[in-house]
Structure formats: C-alpha cells, structure tokens
Amino acid sequence: MSRASLERETTAALSHERAYARRARMERAPHFIEGRFVNPAVLSSPRVEFGVLREFFAPRVSRRPPAALPMISPLDGWRDPPRTGLRTAWLGHSTVLLEIDGARILTDPVWADRASPTRLAGPKRFHEPPVAIASLPPLDAILVSHDHYDHLDAAAVRLLATTSQARFFTALGVGARLEGFGVPHDRITELDWWEEAPIPGTDVAIAATPAQHFSGRGPFDRNTTLWASYVFRGPRHRVFFSGDTGPEPTLPLIRKRFGPFDLILLEVGAFHPAWGDIHLGPWQAMEAHRALGGGPFLPVHWSTFDLALHTWDEPIVVLEEGARDGQFDLPLVAPRIGEVRDVLDPDDIRRSLARLDAWWREVR
Question: What is the 8-class DSSP label of residue 291?
C-alpha cells in the first residue's frame, strides 16, 4: 500500500471514530430523543398560518431601513486595552467581539451578504460588515451558538479557521459542520447544556446553558444538532449570551448558578406571535432580562437581516420605551454598529443615563 493510500485510510478511520464518539455523546443527552434534539419546555413548534402568510406578502417597505445605517469602524477602539476589563464591539446581528478579563471572544461570526444557503436568494444584509475578518484583533475563542445560516456562516468559518488560531466552541453536533468547513477537529469543543470548558491560554471559561429554539440548515435537516445559550465566566466578570431562544424557564437557575451578570446579551429581533416559543422579541426579552437579574443589556439579532414581519427598528423602539420608563435597573446598551463600548466604564454609564444615543431615529 502506498503512503498516500495509508494516509487516506487513516484519515477516514479517524473521521469515522470521531463521528461515532460525537453520536455517542449526543445520545447520552436527555433532550436527544429518537434521533432529534427537543425543547423540554416548549409545547409547540414554529408554525405557518394563513394570517402570517398574508402578512408576509403584504407590502411593508419599513421592513428594511429607508437609509444607510450609521456605522463606526472598531479599529480605533481596539487600539487600547479595555479600561474595565469588559468591552464589546457589536458588528451586526448576533456577531459581537467580546473582551472579558483578557480574553477575546467572537460570537456567531456572520459576514455573508445573505443569511441563506445561496448567494442568489434569501435575506440580504442591510449594511456591510463594519470590519473585515482579516482586520480583527487576535482571538482566543470563536463561539457558534447553533447552525442556522444567520449564526453559522460557512465562508466566515473557513476564513477564520486559517487566519486565527482561536478555539471554536459550539453545541453538540455542530462540530461536524465546522469540520466540514475546514476547522481542525482538535480546535473544536462541543458542549451540552450545563457543560463548561476553559478557553485555552486565558482565565475565562464558556458554559452552555439551555435555550428554547431549533436547528437545521435545510427543510429535511431539523434538530439533528443542539442549540444553546452561553455564559462567559472570568475571574472578575460574567456575561450571558442568549443565542437564539424563546422564553426559557431555567433562566432563574442560570442566574443562580452563574450570576450575577455584568452584561446580558439577548436576541430581540425576528419575532412574531406565531413563533413566540422560539424567539424572544423585545417584550419577552425584557422579562428574560429581569429573570437573569438585570444589569446592562445589549440587544442583538436585529438591524442586519430581514428575517421577520416587523418593521426593521421595532425591537429597539420597544426597548427604548422600556428603558425610558425605568424597566431596566441599568442603562440599555445600544451601540451603533461597530462601536466599541466599555459597558462598565463610569463615564459611559453617565452618558447613557443622561442621553440614550437613539441612532435609529436618524435612519427614520
């Protein structure tokens, strides 16, 4: 047997062994039933009703911004270290570069022009990414919350696999997709709900926590991989990131086990009553924020793709009204896309209390 043939056979055997081990881990999960992951607390699934279809095809020009969204390049903001040890740069949708206690974590990296399996159709971006992947600072971890197209961008993963040495963290089963996109298997950590793993070379750990959602990248590929919310825990700071989720009954337990939180990132866009079980939307996000114990609240999962039937800015308008009515115990963190924010900096907090930068009004 030639050397090349032996290497191919060895690679195939290792791949088969990894697939077997991954499947065995999935089958041990109590929420993996008859070959699919399930939401233990959700009684219904996303559904399509006649009224929803009628609403979808009705003309709604405000589902897209009427003008360009204001953006800020984060490059200048990244030149100096965080003043408080906790800093964010919201890059659009659920993509955030989080700096926490010396670790840099990139969440749900999506640079694609469409949240879709094809470049020819599907939800199109409202804005360009505020920074190129090649211009990102050195990363310690890359988090992929679940495998939907607006959270797992194959082209971005392929590029990050070669331009960064960061470890990828994700939910059970999604590692196979990452390997298929070029991430070496030894740089992938898969987590089940309530599992925690350290970020190599840092003092920060990532824990996967329950969420109410679903998974899949096609009509015949549903719930074969897990979805999750996540906690980033360092020696000084703790951050909660919802991924995609509906109302989650374990939020008080997550707060008790991992809180209090210095920053809470919750998805607020792509909501509708017909799928309220698997997407929060702004009203349910306010309830989730309270269940997690309150604190600075950075809304994500809005203003980048047209994924629902509401106006493009409805999520933040609802949250702005809630913040002004005193429903949050600390300021609503509503940065412009690309803006670098030291969310615990006293000067930043005072500015937010005095005047919320409602940049979305400029777009209107």
Answer: H
In angstroms, rounded to a whole number, what is the distance separating the alpha carbons of residues 158 and 146?
16
Give the CA angle between residues 328, 207, 133 to the nearest 5°. Answer: 85
The DSSP-derived string for 62-82 is GGS-SSPPPB--STTTTSS--
Please tell me the distance from the alpha carbon of residue 340 to that of residue 217, in angstroms, as a whole number.
32
- Predicted model pTM: 0.92
Question: Would you call 197 helix, strand, or coil by DSSP?
Answer: strand
Question: Could you check whether the bond before residue 129 is cis, i.e. omega within 30 degrees of 0?
Answer: no
Of the CA atoms within 13 Å of residue 33, those in its CB half-sphere come to: 5
> Amino acid identity, residue 330?
L
Do 103 and 199 contact (CB within 8 A), yes or no?
yes
Q: How far is CA 62 from the centre of its chain?
A: 24
Task: Report the C-alpha gap between 323 and 325 in whole angstroms.
Answer: 5
pLDDT, tens only, 194-253: 999 999 999 999 999 999 999 999 888 899 999 999 999 999 999 999 999 999 999 999
For residue 227, give both structure tokens: 């979805």
Find the largest Cα–Cα distance for the chain.
Answer: 74
Which amino acid is present at 206? I
pLDDT digits (tens, 9 = 90+) for 265-292: 999 999 988 888 999 999 999 999 999 9
